[in-house]
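Input chain follows. Return structure tokens only.
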Amino acid sequence: MDKQNRREFPTEWLNLMRFLAIFFIMWSHFDNRIFAAVNPTGMNVQKLCFFPPTPGSVLFYGYTGKYAVTMLCVISGFITAWSCDRRSRRPFVKFVIRRYLRLILPVTGISLIYLAVCALSGRRLYSAASVLHALFCLGSEVIVSYYWCLPAFLLGNCLIYLLVVLDQKAKKISPPGKLALLGFLVVGSFLVSYKIYNSRLFWTTAVLAGYLVYQCYMTVDIKLPGYVIVLLAAVVYWLPRGEESLKIYMRCTLASCIVVYALLHMKKTSEKISGFCRRKKVKELLKYSYPLFIVHGFTEFLFSSSVIWQIQARTQSWWLTYLISFALKTLCDFAAAFLIHYIFEEKIQRRILSLLRL
């Protein structure tokens, strides 16, 4: 199968995987930051049910929000490579500006809303420098600490653009040779980040791993028998298990790469999932993936522990309180995500791109 034909594959299933990863992160943060603060044990559900020495640890020990972040990194790298690997790609400067606006505008929007709420409610205000940093600097932790991964997305995407250009110009190197060099680059970067314990470099490399998956799919024409898929599923299940560390994050990244690569070869499965994602309501829902990731940290400030205590007083059941409070928190997240998507992604971003002719 030639390269052009291999490029023709459905990608909607990747949007669903991204949405599920972000939803898992939302639940993980709710579990750690909100529910653990009001539960009488002082522990979240993950520790109560899925950490040693509980029986549930046999099944899900190690499945944390960082696993979902590695999946987001791999998907981001794969989609960027797929979109850049064509003659009609945009110039590099335009690519960087568009990518920056795509990442920062939802952050700017929810930050403005949060600062307005702080001013109206009499909460502490931030200095002008801190406000500008929060509004326009990717990865700013002035208001919320969840955005540490955004610079890695931008840097990783820009590096992938340059690697795609370099790949297309390096005609003298055979495809297996290019794949070997890329693999050496990604594995070497992982080892360096682990050695110097630099998480920023690690997450950028996790995005590059998505490009490696893309190149493997485009270069290596293989078929995965059923028994190989079963074996890969077992490996993916085992890799994330363990205490959080860069070593475990590396294993989570490998698991994410295997999942994406395997689904690319499971044509019928990926086509069925993509067909489901093309349904009008599902497609509409998946548009809110990135805004959900951005807003869920801010709604935690508004979703006070007193709300959970009031629910608990009525239900007299912590498990029922957990489900109800998470459902209410999720509704708040979707409402905020809808607002940010409509104003800052559909209106403001399109207007800026039109003015800049991007």
